[in-house]
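Protein modeling request. Please complete all fields; requests missing the sequence field cannot be processed.
Requester role: graduate student
Desired output: 3D structure, C-alpha cell encoding
Chains: 1
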Amino acid sequence: MTYRPAETAFGPPFVTQLPSLFYLVLALVAAAMVFVAEQSAPGTFLYQQIVVRSAQGFVNARTVALLLVAGAVASVIKTNMRGVRIRGDGVEYRDVIALGIPRLRRLKWAQIDRILLDAPRTVALELWDGTRADLPEVAEREKLSAALELVAHARAIPVRGGVGLDELPEDGELADSSS
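Delivered output (179 residues):
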C-alpha cells in the first residue's frame, strides 16, 4: 500500500504562450479586414485590394483568412498542451522539441531515484538508470515543487534543494487512495 497523489496538472508559463497568442491576434485582425473589405463599397481601397485582387488569384481572401485563423487556433492548442502532470502512478510531461515535434514521457514513481529542486526555473528527476529527465518549465513552479516534495516525502524519494515540509501532512493526506 503506497501513497498515490491526486492528479494535478501544471501548464506552461505565459511567456511561452505569447508567440501563439500574437499569431492568433494577427490572424483575427486579418479575418476582420477581409470581412470589412467584403462589406465595404466597391470603390474603396480595401475592396479593391482584398476583394478584387483575391478574385483574380488562385485562392480567395476569405479562404486565406480562414486558414490563418485555423492555424493560429491550432498553435494555441499545441502550446497549451505543454506542461507537467502528477498522476497517481507517476509523472507525465509534455514538451515540444525541434521543429514542433511533440514529446510525451511518462515516468513511474519507482523509476525516480531523486528529485532535484535546486535549479532556479526547472525541476529535474534523476532516474534509476543513471539518466536525468528535465521537466519543462511550468507557470506555477513553486506549486509543482511542493507537490513533488510531498510525494517524495510519502514515497521516501530523496529530494535535493527542497524547501522542506513546514509540518507533517494530515493523516488523510497520505492515506492510501487504492483502498
